[in-house]
Amino acid sequence: MVADGLAGLIRTIPGYPKPGIQFRDITTLLLDPAGLSGSIDQLSAALADLKPDLIAGIEARGFIFGTGVAQALGCGLLLIRKKNKLPGAVLGVNYALEYGQDRIEMHADACPPGARVVIVDDLIATGGTAIATAQLLRQAGAEVAGAGFVIDLPDLGGAARLRAGGVRVQTLLEFAGD
């Protein structure tokens, strides 16, 4: 984990989206040119040794960080989208939410079998979406080489769950509590 001044650029909004939650808002980081480029540089450096063919950016903030990491590492960007957002044939995985289910999808032809893929998103909390993304990539025949996140909320256990599923996880910042 690399803090390097980035933590001060993350705004905490108490009680959003419901009482008791401490929402970690990265929009303030995105507004800071040095913070944005620094976070992408640090994430790219942390993931470079994985030598990915593709970066899988999870909708929507993962597209921002994933694009920068893909450019820095010289590989393509694979979009992981919410259901019904992609035209054409898709592969998808349903996964559990706190109350109900959701679905992520990718184009069926977007990931060649055997491709080394690294998952990128802004934050990992419970890990549900990231774990579903790893499952989706493996369903497509990819090798999930690792995952990178700007923020980890370790008390919610998502990074630990992803590691338990055989995925190397890199994060830049940790915030205790929810």
UniProtKB/TrEMBL annotation:
Residues 42-152 form the Phosphoribosyltransferase domain. It is an enzyme of class 2 (transferase). GO terms for biological process: adenine salvage; AMP salvage; purine ribonucleoside salvage. Pfam families: Pribosyltran. Its EC number is 2.4.2.7. It is found in: Cytoplasm. Pathway: Purine metabolism; AMP biosynthesis via salvage pathway; AMP from adenine: step 1/1. Homodimer. NCBIfam families: apt, PRK02304.1-3, PRK02304.1-5. This is Adenine phosphoribosyltransferase.
